[in-house]
Amino acid sequence: MSGCRIGKVKLKSGGILHKLPTVERDEPQKQLVDCAATISGFHEPGELAGYVVFGWDRQGLSSIGYFIDRPGLVGVRMLPSFVADGLREKMIETGDWG
Predict the structure, then answer these.
(1) How far is residue 77's CA from residue 61's CA, in Å, rounded to a whole number?
(2) 25-47 confidence digits (pLDDT tens)
(3) β-bridge pairing 62-68 and 50-56
(4) pTM given for the model
């Protein structure tokens, strides 16, 4: 039966609505999520060959996550210098270097 529409939905007596929990994020966390979504959107499905996410807190403790598509041009041995060079290039480009 196509084109069927549901009118008003009423809860039976005793129905309880539960609000789904949301993750509270501060500004740096929101920017991280936005940046990751933007970068992901630059590539078509199947094009992205890897990524690195690196974060640190105010005490200098860091965490890292990465993915490398094994047959890609950037391998495990090249990844650290590839990321460092990319970061330097971006910082010079934006005027944050030096």
Answers:
(1) 24
(2) 899 999 999 999 999 999 999 89
(3) antiparallel
(4) 0.67
